[in-house]
Amino acid sequence: MLAPVQPAAGAIVPAADSLRERVVLVTGATGGLGRASALAAAASGATVVLLGRKVRPLEALYDEIERLGGAAPAIYPMDLAGATPKDHADLAAAVERECGRLDGIVHAAAHFDSLQPFEQQAPDEWNRNLQVNVTAPFLLTRACMPLLRRAPDAALVFVFDDGARVGNAYWGGYGVSKFALQGLASIVHEETESSTVRTHALLPGPMRTTLRRAAYYGEDTMARPDPGGAAQAVAWLLGAAAIGVRGKVLDLR
């Protein structure tokens, strides 16, 4: 398994232009952490491929990145819940054709419906959790690995959840998928450890996100920090400065 590591005191901030000339693909790019990660990567100089379900929010994020002076991003609408292996292969081919390279993937997309007893969780909902949260990262990483291996330094960033929390009652398919994602990231690390492809994981603390609001009904989610701080850590992991923590879980809690 990937070993945990905690950052030194203070926020993790990527160096200016640390991702210049790099192409980074962010899944769930219009969600809480995905959107913030896309903005942070763009601010660090990356050309960002924005992957999400809906075109309009992707276009709005595209415009925001351009207004902030970032490199023109690319938009790729795709619903991970229904995407086939061919869809992922087509995405990898499109990135190669349009961008010429790929230097990183941020697996920020996540699906969570609600807390409920496992006996009441519909099989379709169970399958959707596993498809979006673990099967899609497998398919996307597999399809893009030839591109990543051609980069002089490439990074995969998986986003974990607190196992002590999601292993409890009522977390259902989401909790199971997050344990499975840890296994996938560990296997990918072991198989790429001697290559130029680095595997990282991020364990953020509670954030002001839609997923948090769905899971904690009575909580004032607005009192939680926005995902911007965690996104800075994501951008740092994508850059060469994080080589020393490859195969680690950066624990921000």
TrEMBL record:
<dbReference type="InterPro" id="IPR036291">
    <property type="entry name" value="NAD(P)-bd_dom_sf"/>
</dbReference>
<dbReference type="GO" id="GO:0016020">
    <property type="term" value="C:membrane"/>
</dbReference>
<comment type="similarity">
    <text>Belongs to the short-chain dehydrogenases/reductases (SDR) family.</text>
</comment>
<dbReference type="InterPro" id="IPR057326">
    <property type="entry name" value="KR_dom"/>
</dbReference>
<dbReference type="Pfam" id="PF00106">
    <property type="entry name" value="adh_short"/>
</dbReference>
<dbReference type="GO" id="GO:0016491">
    <property type="term" value="F:oxidoreductase activity"/>
</dbReference>
<feature type="domain" description="Ketoreductase">
    <location>
        <begin position="22"/>
        <end position="174"/>
    </location>
</feature>
<protein>
    <submittedName>
        <fullName>Short-subunit dehydrogenase</fullName>
    </submittedName>
</protein>
<dbReference type="InterPro" id="IPR020904">
    <property type="entry name" value="Sc_DH/Rdtase_CS"/>
</dbReference>
<dbReference type="InterPro" id="IPR002347">
    <property type="entry name" value="SDR_fam"/>
</dbReference>
<keyword id="KW-0560">Oxidoreductase</keyword>
